[in-house]
Amino acid sequence: MMKNIGIIGVGMMGLGHSLGFDMISDCKVVAVADSNEKQLEMIKNAFKRSSPQFFNDYKEILNMPEVDAVVIATPSYLHQKMTIDALKANKDVFLEKPIAPTIEATDAIIMALAKTDRIIQVGLVYRYSNLYRTIVHLIEEGRFGNVMMAYCKEYRDNFSNLWFFDEAKSGGALLDKNCHHFDLFNWFITSPPKSVFAQGGKHVVKSGHKIQCAYSKHQGDVIKNPSIVDHANVLIEFENGAKGNLGLCMYEIEPIEGLEIGLMGDNGSWALAKKDETLIIAGGPIGNKEEVFLDYYSDNEGVGHIGCQTERREFLECLETRKQPFANLKIARDSCVVAFAAEKSIREGRIVSISEFFNPEVEAVFEKLGYNTLQKAPPVFSLETPQQKLKLKKKLKTKRKQLEKDLERIEEEIRNVSNKF
User: Fold this and answer.
1) Are residues 285 and 136 in the same domain?
2) Are residues 211 and 179 in the same domain?
3) 194 and 176, same domain (yes or no)
4) Which of 111-115, 246-250, 270-274, 383-387 is the least confident region?
5) What is the DSSP letter of 227?
6) Distance CA 342, CA 348 (A)
7) What are 201's strand-pairing partners?
8) Residues 223 and 98 grouped into a single domain
9) CB–CB of 18/32 below 8 Å?
10) Mean pLDDT, residues 55-73
């Protein structure tokens, strides 16, 4: 059945959702709201299938009976009121990550959901990517034994908009930027996090520094009195003894080195994902290095972050079947709590226990909704389009040429050694 979607907030994330949902035949974008008139003007001609109405007040969308669900892609300090208003209007919600900038606001949204029969899916897009689902499939198959170490290195440019630099609005760099990665740690290790210790501060991004972000429309805007860190190192201990570590730097300038996500199993096998476009596994029973070739196109269709189209398709499926989403509020809260603990550890200079964020009322809601049951990773998604097949074929041809060059170099080295003796 055709679903009608309303988009609240059309900054970078909202624009992506507008274009992405507009591409899917099972839905139409029927309304868009943003308080910034320039943002609305920018997006008005972007739709190909949909003919939405445009509003400055998001409540206009909530008053439309034909709207089945809304996407909330506004700055996170606006999430609590908008999400609760949407639930009261009997709308299902796709809520961008993080849930909210504080644990109090996060839990308020969860408790509001408990009073309804609505669905909230959180935009933890990696949960829907072919890359990270494949890694978890390998974990579930036992290829790494028990995952006992996970790590993330994210060295990148800084945030794209001034509001991010105010911790009261964004919740801090580690929340907004790294809740994705803390979620991956939780997913890989499958044991609850126990404690967090973090160190961080401001090396470069201080008052008077300018936004330096390759994709920002606010490039060069002057940052005044930033209250977030521009670098951090985070150590996480899990209840089963596993460890996670994350290194963040937010002042690298193009060309960016790129994201690295890795894990180590207790059988000596390991996996390393680079730049969300390459997966290498090796060691232990796996043996020599091998690249796991994946479909990196179908889960996003070239319109955004890996996993972005799959998360939209699966949200629409949840609207139709009324099943709970894979990226539910418990999974999202768990990832946010690690970030909250890390930010608290930096402020207070101590190890922070995850139990400090325990809320029995929230846990009761999760139990009622069935969120405490461990879910298997869903299958990867493939469109098997000619574009995807062509892209994979080109990648394989490039790899073959590189291997041929490596072979020629090795043969030349062998000849040189033979001539010497």
Assistant:
1) yes
2) yes
3) yes
4) 383-387
5) -
6) 10
7) 231
8) no
9) yes
10) 98
Which ranges of 90-231 would DSSP assign to H, the alpha helix?
A: 103-114, 130-140, 167-170, 173-189
Task: Give the model confidence (pLDDT) of 204-238 as tens digits.
Answer: 999 999 988 888 888 899 999 999 999 999 999 99
In the β-sheet with 69-72, what is the strand arrangement from edge to edge?
53-55, 27-33, 3-8, 69-72, 92-95, 120-122
Task: Judge whether 11 lies within some domain.
Answer: yes
Nearest to 89 by CA among 107, 106, 72: 72
β partners of residue 247: 153, 233
Query: CA 343 to CA 197: how far, in whole Å?
Result: 9
User: In sequence order, which residues have a C-beta less than 8 Å from that of residue 403 and are 6 or more positions away?
Assistant: none
Cα–Cα distance, 286 to 294 (Å, whole number): 18
Name the residue among 48, 38, 39, 36 with its Cα closest to residue 15: 39
The angle, 0 to 180 degrees and rounded to 10, between the axes of the packed helices 308-321 and 12-22 is 60
The CB-side HSE value for 420 (13 A sphere, CA atoms) comes to: 6
Question: Is residue 223 situated within a structural domain?
Answer: yes
| Strand duo 92-95 + 69-72: pairing | parallel
Residue 335 lies inside a defined structural domain of this protein: no
Number of domains the chain contains:
3
pLDDT in tens, 339-356: 999 999 999 999 999 999
CATH number of the domain encompassing residue 49 = 3.40.50.720
What pLDDT was estimated at residue 157? 92
Specify if 147 maps to a domain.
yes
What are the φ/ψ torsions at residue 152 (nearest 5 degrees)?
A: -140, 135
Same domain, yes or no, for 7 and 116? yes
> Same domain for 162 and 226?
yes
Say how far apart CA 413 and CA 401 lie, in whole Å. Answer: 19
Rounded Cα distance between 291 and 279, Å, is 6
Structural domain harbouring 393: 388-421
| % the chain with pLDDT above 70 | 98
363 and 396 in a single domain? The answer is no
The pLDDT tens digits for 154-188 are 999 999 899 999 999 999 999 999 999 999 999 99
Query: Domain with 237 in it: what CATH number?
Result: 3.30.360.10
User: Based on the domain organization, do 253 and 175 belong to the same domain?
Assistant: yes
Q: Which residues contact 178 (CB under 8 A, 6 or more apart)?
A: 152, 154, 234, 246, 248, 339, 342
Name, in order, each residue with C-beta under 8 angstroms of 84's C-beta and a sequence gap of 6 or more: 108, 109, 112
What was the pLDDT predicted at 418? Answer: 72
